[in-house]
Write a structure and sequence with these properties.
Helices cover 18% and strands 35% of the residues. It has helices at 6-14, 31-39, 61-66, 120-125, 152-159, and strands at residues 18-19, 25-27, 44-47, 52-57, 82-88, 94-103, 106-111, 134-137, 142-148, 160-162, 173-179, 182-188, 196-202.
Amino acid sequence: MNLRTDEYRSRLERAGAQWSEHDEVTRYGDVAVEWRAVRLGGVGVADRATRETLVMTGAGAIQWLQGLVTNDLFTLSAPGAAQRTHAVSRLGRSISDARVVHVPGHILLDLEPGTIASGFLGHLRRHIINEDVGLSDATSTTGRLGVYGLDAAELLEAKGSWDRSPASLEDFEATWGEVAGEEVIALRSPLTGEPSFELFLGRAATEA
C-alpha cells in the first residue's frame, strides 16, 4: 500500500529523511540535533504514515471490545477519552497492542504497522455475532503525524482551532478541531519525556 504521495515522499527526502526497511523515516540527519529539539526546547515533527487505523462504530462497540482486551474500556464512555490496551486470544496469548481513542461518533484503534496484515481485523470480526458493531480499515485514508517537544502544545494551539485546548490534555486524552482548514484529531500520548501528540487527519491533507 502506497501511504504517501510522490510529492509528500519527495518533500520528506528534501528534508533529509532516511528510511528503514519498513518504509518508516528513522531520522532527518543528526540524531543529537533532533533529540535536543524535542527535549531541550522546541518541537519535533515526525512522519507516522505507516501506522494503521481501524474505525469502530455502533452503540455496542465499547462493551463488545471490552471482552477482547486487557483493560477496562468502560473508562472510554466519554468522547475525548483514550487508553493503551492489549488484545489477547481466548487462551490469553498476545495478539496486538493498540491505542483506543473515543471521538464523537466512533472509536479509533491506533495500531503498529503490519498489525492488520497479521490477521487482527479478521480476529475481531470473528467475534461479532449479534452486537451492534461496525469495523473498517481506515489506514489508506487516515494520515498520521507526530508532534513532540516542550513547545508542541503551543504550536498546536497557534495553528488550529480546537474543541478542547491541547495544552489542557493529560496523557491519553484527545481533542479535535481544524488545522489549515482540515479536520484533525489530536491524541496526547506519552511517547517522549516531553509533551507528545499524535495527529489523525485525512491522508490527502497530511502534506499540507
